[in-house]
Amino acid sequence: MRTGRLVLAVVLGLSLATPAAADAQPWRDARQPPDRRAAELIAAMTLDEKISQLHLQPDAEHQRFVPPIPRLGVPGFRIANGPAGMGPADDKPQKPATALPATMALASTFDTGLARRYGRLIGAETRALAHNVSEAPDINIARVPRNGRTFEGMGEDPVLAGALAAADIRGIQENGTIAEVKHYAANNQETQRFSIDEHIDERTLNEIYLPHFEQSVVEGRAGSVMCAFPKINGVFTCENPALLQGKLRDEWGFEGFVQSDWGAAHSTIGSAAAGMNLEMIDGTWYGDRMKQAVLAGQVTEQRVDELLRPRFRTMFAFGQFDHPPVLSPLPTARHDATAKEFAERGMVLLRNEHAQLPLDPAVRSIALIGPFATRAKTGGGGSSAVIPTSTVDPLAGLRQRVPGAAVTLDDGSDVARAAELARGADVSVVMVGDNETEGKDRPSLALEGTQDALVAAVAAANPRTVVVVKSGGPVLMPWAASVPAILQAWYPGQQDGAAVASVLFGDVNPSAKLPITFPAADADTPANTPARFPGVGGVATYSEGLQVGYRWFDAQDRTPLFPFGYGLSYTTFAFSGLSVRNTGDGATATFTVRNTGRRAGAEVAQLYLGFPAAAGEPPRQLKGFSRVSLAPGESRRVTIRLAARDFSVWDPAGHGWQPVRGGFTVSVGDSSRSLPLRASLVR
């Protein structure tokens, strides 16, 4: 038994705590509060040991890794990629994990309970694969739909992103894994991402680009925050005291640690003063330069202690000193089933003329066509990519669902050949999409290559055509009016084929909604000038202000292809009986949702608030939502509560939230452009 403990200690980088050692090293006493244990540990460290814990030190096996200090019982610290599963973390050998549907698909569910389960799976696998931190969730607002990382985020609205992020974080952290919400803040484009200077006015920054980070910290209790690459108003975020100290710690009460993005640190003294706690990837600024700065009196050793304390106290609070994560097998079968459910729940039915969907299981022949029909679309590119434990390709998924049908695959590379195949089939299913990736933005929202021509040709050849779109964000659809059914599947993850088949054949009734507006043309998006995106002279000017996403379309009176919050179902719903009243500092809105169709299904009731004109806000803003599951003919009374903050705007003069007085409009419905219930409210 003693030998086994010794081996385990060597593997974990720990020293065994005998009673005498525990007396000599009081931070090993788990009965003490985390802050005290952290302070006791830091007091016992040498300056070199302290500096060794301020930055990552990649070795032959690990890239995102802080080595242990065996003499003090400090375990190794390993960081994993996110946010749609435990990424490979640049480990050698790389470890497979469950490739979940893209975070954009999670956002489409408008379901905080499901978001918590999504996070719980990620946290469990991160710990099982012996890592301490999951770099998740990514919640940057989709200001630029062409952003190469749109698929990683949660759409264009801070209320939706904040609610889902807080739930996701709670799930990740349930079993002792630290969630690292990113990228703080306004990391909204990949073009010039290492140097771009974003000029954002104070009101826009606080109303659009910060509230969901606040909710992640205050409600989600995130243990870590990743500071991002860009400058905001001339200051890099990882050395920005207004963001790292003023907002995070002073205003929001954040107790965790701030880690830089991969190479996002740009200084020693500035970053230390601002409160960046951990440098990724190496010790360029927090290694030898930090030691020299301390010896020269430019950074005090007390400041070094203050930088270390948040990470250590977080590790103590999460039990990572007492019970470090160790390599364990994954419950792959159970997680496969969960990943399939997540993918099904995140798919948005955009069009369904003449009830083309669900497909009849008695169908005899299916033409499966397109470049995204050949293999499972497990995710986007870059650091978020997950090595899947298994995959279900579209062909396998359809054949498993309808074993009696003849399913023929064509990759769509020859448009004429594909159209001919479609002409002879009972149903044609065309799968198109995009390949978003970290490191570059898309040149356009248009589908690449001949995909538009492919859809048009197949639809002309077979009137029973279904288009399945696998994209990380909006795509242009010049053919939308010519096809009877469109299913937005996002990046479905490793259960792609099985999940898509379930929705197409009605085993699952789609209930997701768009968390991002689909424009009819590239020029319809708000960041549609060079000065706004990608920027001029290294500066991206956010002159659209508060008009982001659907706020822009409403303010500019532009008609989108599909609006924010939109999504169809295989059943129908009706809204009635809106009642609104003030309640103390806030208000409540109560209304009825009824399933008017013949199938059980779920509707997402959405509440939008219109401010008095003098407030200078966009016409409508999402302030609350409620997902309601109903049997055919069933109705339910739904209440959405509004807080005082919901009736406030950011006041740049006072640098705080200011209540607005006057007449408000409360609107309720199933999308930002379908709001059948309206009521007035005076504050």
TrEMBL record:
Gene3D superfamilies: Glycoside hydrolase family 3 C-terminal domain (3.40.50.1700), Glycoside hydrolase, family 3, N-terminal domain (3.20.20.300), Immunoglobulins (2.60.40.10). GO terms for molecular function: beta-glucosidase activity. Keywords: Hydrolase, Signal. GO terms for biological process: glucan catabolic process. Residues 603-672 form the Fibronectin type III-like domain. Pfam families: Fn3-like, Glyco_hydro_3, Glyco_hydro_3_C. SUPFAM superfamilies: (Trans)glycosidases, Beta-D-glucan exohydrolase, C-terminal domain. The keyword Hydrolase applies. Residues 1-22 form the signal peptide. Belongs to the glycosyl hydrolase 3 family. This is Glycosyl hydrolase. It comes from Amycolatopsis eburnea.
